[in-house]
Amino acid sequence: MADPVRSSQRAPLSCVHCSRRKVRCNKQIPCDECKRRGLTSGCTREKVKINGQIIETGSSVPSISYEDLQTENDRLKAILAGSANNPSTPSDDESFSLENSVDFEHYLFEKLSERTQNVSVVSTHEVEFPPRELSEHLLLQGSLWTSWIHFALHHPTFEEEHRRFWNECETAEQRVHFDPHWLAVYFSFLSAMLVFSDKVNTTRQTVIENTDTSAMLRKWFDTAIFYLYKADFLRKHDFRTVQAIAILGIVFNNVGEFNLHVTLWSSAVRIAQALKMDKEAVLAVKTPIERELSRRVWWTLVICEWSLPAPKDDDEIVSSGIISKRPLSHPRPIHYHLFMIRAAKIYHHFRSLLKIGRWTRSSIVSLVQRTDDELAQIAFELPSYLKFEYKPSARSQINEAEFPWLSWQRNNIALVQLHLRVSVNKILQNVWTDNVTFQRARSICLNSSTAIISLVLDSGIPREKLKSW
């Protein structure tokens, strides 16, 4: 005779074995305790009756976030709104289709990707290192101008590794056969710095000026890729592989490697997951620097999937784990990334909603307006010195000479915000002329596009500064 099913108010989370032995269960199926005791096949939860219905849960209970619930709610509302359509529905609430929208950006990159790229480095004989003096100079410049863009290095650590590399490898033969993982990061860093070569503006500038910087950029980029393959990065997972690819994120498109960008970026995400860089429980046992670097690189790879603590600057991390506290009014490079986090989450949520259910004209207009308002709100909440309308003056408390990257960040944030507003509002491009409601989206697109052109042509921003964007 089968055991009677007891009645309960809630389904049990612990497995039967752990409940009977009165030991802690981690509530997974199979749980860690049953794995340790070799009872994985019998690790189940008790069958119970709740409100007359028999419940038997044989797997882990999923964790549902507020964002998940909001997305599901929007999906169901879109389905209901679409199902309610009928011939008598007013013209401004007709079914709205996204299928005929033209994605000009996708078309442009698709055409550019068709061009064949010539690889300049296929063996160690073709690897070229910069002189040590230039390498040290680029390292110093990179810590100021590019590290806050890719955000994949802890510079004090990388500078010490750089010093040891040049001290230990006195000959070219020693250098080309050094650790390929580290060399992949090194040449990724060099190529990223060379993308913004206008910043090599000291006495060593002649070293750059007398060289074809485009050829050098291509050479160092190809060298970084060469050492990734030399490290057998697809089989031997290493954190530095993910670092190198994250840094190359600002280089790929500047050397015309659009397809390689997509392929390696996807690989980096999977390698990072294999290394459990997205698991806070795993990161908790690492050193403060290792933990923060893992967070940074993971955020760089999947900026729209943020669920980890806010990142920190290099000088906020110390080996003892004590984090220095500074007022929010103090300029920090990380504020740029905090804006990108919020903007990416908003846009990712918007794109996700577009893919589910069926939309009516009124519901899609509501979504577009809500998303546009959310983008405007995060721009409003920026520190004053990162708002585009900010004008430094003698009375300002912030000395911009002390923080030369502020104006660059300000321009980048303005460009990103304008670009996202265009991307959101252009969804309505097929119905712009139908009524005043849709013309608002058209005006936003035209005004934002005009502002982008004006910002690029008339603001005095050096062309090199626009390459990351």
Please specify the SSE layout and strand pairing.
Blueprint: H1 16-21, H2 32-36, E1 48-50, E2 53-55, H3 66-83, E3 95-96, H4 104-112, H5 132-145, H6 147-150, H7 155-168, H8 172-176, H9 180-195, H10 205-209, H11 213-230, H12 239-248, H13 258-274, H14 280-283, H15 288-301, H16 334-354, E4 359-360, H17 361-380, H18 406-425, H19 436-458
Antiparallel strand pairs: 1-2, 3-4
Helix pairs in contact: 5-7, 5-9, 9-11, 9-12, 12-13, 12-15, 16-17, 16-18, 17-18, 18-19
Domain Zn(2)-C6 fungal-type: 14-45
InterPro entries: Sec_Metabolite_Reg (IPR050613), XnlR_reg_dom (IPR007219), Zn2-C6_fun-type_DNA-bd_sf (IPR036864), Zn2Cys6_DnaBD (IPR001138)
Organism: Oidiodendron maius (strain Zn)
Largest sheet: 2 strands, antiparallel
Helix content range of the residues, please?
40-55%
Estimate nothing, just give the exact number of structural domains: 3
Question: How many helices in DSSP terms?
Answer: 19
Which strand order does the major sheet show?
A: 1-2
Number of beta strands: 4
Shape: globular
Low-confidence stretches: 58-63, 84-92, 199-206, 304-309, 319-323
**Radius of gyration, in angstroms, nearest whole number:** 27 Å
- What class would the helix/strand composition place it in? mainly alpha
- Report mean pLDDT, rounded to a whole number: 78
Report the order of strands and helices: HHEEHEHHHHHHHHHHHHHEHHH
Which band does the percent of strand residues land in? under 5%
Report, as a whole number of angstroms, the end-to-end distance.
70 Å
Protein name: Zn(2)-C6 fungal-type domain-containing protein
GO cellular component, one term: nucleus
Pfam family, one: Fungal_trans
Main location: nucleus
